[in-house]
């Protein structure tokens, strides 16, 4: 197929998972991982690149973070697919096997100061994930005032979307509560998935998300 004479647009790419589909089992089963990474996330990347081509040069060369910060509620394709790409990238990284299984150091101290205790933070985060109606995400984020906060967003929105999200800031940790993230293994039992997720967080990665 012959392409036009336009310069090739900037394309986003899905980064390698970096671990086996079975690495998070039994918390997250290998088939869910394969379909979630290989079909759902890959689909967002394909559709994001299609939306970037449709948008022409308007967003050319922007990082994904810059793109999400700058879009508005009516930029539907960029919102859904850009958010989908960003959110899943963060999710895979943060579930990477290894690292600290519990918060440590400065982040631990700040979580305790903000929420009262690590257990209290876990309860607030889990409740936000459980109560998100329909599809979406729950977040631990650092808001624009520099405070740690737990929020949730519908669909593939996230706290980077300054023109869309109720609370804007930097996502440190996100849990995907779309049914595709857990339905094969947990059916309608979202709470069991949330509990399993909480036990597989790589807190070294969460802490590093705070610095970038
Ligand atoms: Mn997902």
Major sheet description: 3 strands, antiparallel
User: End-to-end span in angstroms?
Assistant: 40 Å
Outline, from the CA principal axes? globular
SS strand fraction:
5-15%
- Low-confidence segments, given as residue ranges, are 1-5
Instruction: Please identify the oligomeric state.
Output: single chain
Number of helices: 8
Bound molecules: manganese (II) ion
Rounded radius of gyration (Å) = 17 Å
**Structural class, from secondary structure content?**
mainly alpha
Q: Compute the average pLDDT.
A: 93
Element-by-element helix/strand order: HHHHHEEEHHH
Roughly how much helix do the residues carry, as a percent range? 40-55%
The side-by-side strand order for the widest beta sheet comes to 2-1-3
Number of strands: 3
What does this structure look like?
With 212 residues, the protein is mainly alpha-helical. The protein is 46% helix and 11% strand. It has eight helices and three strands; from the N terminus they run αααααβββααα. The protein has a three-stranded antiparallel β-sheet with strand order 2-1-3. Strand 1 and strand 2 form a beta hairpin. The longest helix has 26 residues. Manganese (II) ion binds next to helix 1.
């Amino acid at each position: 197929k012959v392409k036009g004479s336009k310069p090739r647009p900037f394309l986003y790419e899905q980064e390698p998972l970096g671990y086996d589909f079975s690495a998070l089992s039994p918390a997250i089963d290998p088939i869910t991982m394969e379909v979630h990474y290989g079909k759902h996330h890959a689909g967002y990347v394909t559709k994001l690149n299609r939306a970037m081509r449709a948008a022409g040069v308007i967003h050319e060369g922007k990082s994904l973070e810059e793109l999400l910060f700058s879009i508005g509620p009516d930029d539907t394709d960029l919102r859904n697919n850009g958010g989908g790409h960003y959110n899943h990238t963060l999710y895979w990284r943060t579930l990477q096997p290894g690292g600290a299984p519990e918060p440590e150091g400065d982040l631990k101290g700040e979580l305790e100061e903000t929420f009262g205790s690590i257990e209290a933070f876990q309860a607030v985060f889990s409740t936000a994930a459980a109560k998100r109606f329909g599809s979406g995400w729950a977040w631990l984020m650092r808001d624009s005032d520099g405070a740690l906060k737990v929020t949730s967003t519908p669909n593939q929105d996230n706290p980077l979307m300054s023109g869309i999200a109720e609370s804007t800031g930097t996502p440190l940790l996100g849990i995907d509560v779309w049914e595709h993230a857990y339905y094969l293994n947990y059916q309608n039992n979202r709470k069991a998935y949330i509990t399993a997720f909480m036990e597989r967080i790589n807190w070294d990665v969460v802490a590093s998300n705070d610095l970038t």
